[in-house]
Design brief:
Blueprint lengths: L1 E3 L2 E3 L24 H16 L15 H17 L7 E9 L4 E2 L13 E10 L4 E3 L1 H10 L3 H16 L2 E2 L1 H11 L8 H8 L3 H10 L3 H7 L2 H4 L19 H4 L6 H15 L13 E2 L4 E4 L5 H14 L3 E2 L3 E6 L3 H10 L1 H18 L1
Length: 357
């Protein structure tokens, strides 16, 4: 039955209804340009040859093989690291042509010579930086065993530098030097430039800015300096790290013992700096902000860093690797080399969760 001009038309004495056209299940829902499709296919074959993931990691159906492989790699990463509470590492994969340029969503111009692809670039970063107040628990560790809070924080920031960078109070102090103080030890040079010798104006400006005294008041000395390092004015830092295994003999609280156990495991990992990004601009790719208390001076410095960095060149990649498509064994070597980093990320996450609870 078809309605036409308000009337009813009967076909062969039976009511007939129009059926919407449907695509067969084998027809992809998206049309991928030929150049990108070829790159996707080559990359998929490369990853399959490298046995980079399990067959079950691939979705049952997909339109973009490149995206499907990226998702499969994500499942492999999640399996290697284990469950996380605080961090959200994310991995991206892009195809490169012979000149090192990215092959992405391209429109092939008529008559243009197809680009040749030669490798893939895998990079990783934090999906969403969050603040985690850790000061209270660190001070409790310090009270339970002098030097313990300082040592746990030192292990965290030392190992995170190559595995998964964290924005700690010590990092905030270093950032403050160039964000506010023109690379100097304190705010005096900045005040000289903006206020001259007008004492009233200097004091008013000092009250509004991030000053050296604010840092000294906001954190204990062991939270804003490296161990056995002299301070800005030449005074000894006044503390040093302790043997965590011996500290276990003095710690009775089960939660504190768990923190020390994870800190020992993290300290034992050997993580090289093989996959550092060769990028221009200021690095802002921190995995988390470890404040002393909620929304304290650390978060203020971090926000100001982001604002200033985005006014120029900056990048948030923690690491990257380029692998040739004709060398699937190199993919397996990279996966094996990432094992200590994955262990470190899991331990860093557990420590942050325990310190911020």
């Amino acid at each position: 039955m078809i309605s036409a001009g308000g009337g009813l038309v009967h076909l062969a004495g039976r009511h007939a209804a129009l059926a919407l056209p449907r695509l067969a299940e084998g027809v992809p829902r998206k049309i991928v340009p030929g150049q990108l499709g070829a790159a996707n296919a080559a990359t998929s074959q490369f990853l399959l040859d490298a046995k980079a993931f399990r067959d079950s990691d691939l979705p049952e159906s997909f339109d973009d093989s490149m995206l499907a492989c990226e998702q499969a790699l994500g499942k492999w990463v999640a399996r290697e690291i284990g469950p996380l509470r605080c961090l959200r590492p994310t991995f991206h994969m892009q195809v490169l042509d012979v000149t090192g340029g990215y092959i992405g969503h391209l429109h092939e111009d008529a008559g243009r010579e197809p680009r040749r692809y030669s490798g893939v670039q895998i990079s990783w970063c934090e999906a969403g930086v969050q603040e985690w107040p850790v000061g209270q628990r660190l001070e409790e560790l310090e009270a339970a065993c002098p030097g313990l809070g300082a040592t746990v924080l030192h292990v965290l920031r030392r190992q995170s530098m190559t595995a998964y960078p964290l924005f700690t109070p010590e990092v905030a102090r270093e950032v403050a030097s160039w964000v506010y103080w023109y690379g100097e030890e304190d705010e005096e040079t900045a005040l000289d430039m903006h206020c001259g010798e007008d004492e009233a104006e200097r004091e008013a400006a000092r009250a509004e800015m991030v000053s050296r005294d604010l840092f000294d008041d906001a954190f204990p000395a062991w939270a804003r300096t490296w161990p056995k390092r002299r301070g800005w004015k030449g005074e000894p830092s006044g503390w040093k790290t302790i043997d965590l295994r011996r500290a276990m003999l003095r710690v009775l609280d089960p939660e504190q013992r768990g923190i020390v156990t994870d800190a020992i495991a993290l300290a034992r990992l050997r993580i090289d700096d093989s996959f550092r990004c060769d990028c221009d601009g200021e690095f802002i790719g921190f995995g988390a902000v470890l404040s002393w208390s909620e929304s304290d001076l650390t978060t203020r410095v971090f926000d100001d860093l982001l604002q200033q960095a985005h006014e120029g060149e900056c990048y948030d990649r923690m690491g990257e690797v380029w692998i040739a498509l004709n060398a699937p064994s190199a993919m397996k070597q990279w996966q094996q080399a990432m094992s200590p980093r994955f262990k470190a990320i899991g331990l860093i996450d557990r420590l942050i969760a325990a310190l911020s609870d």
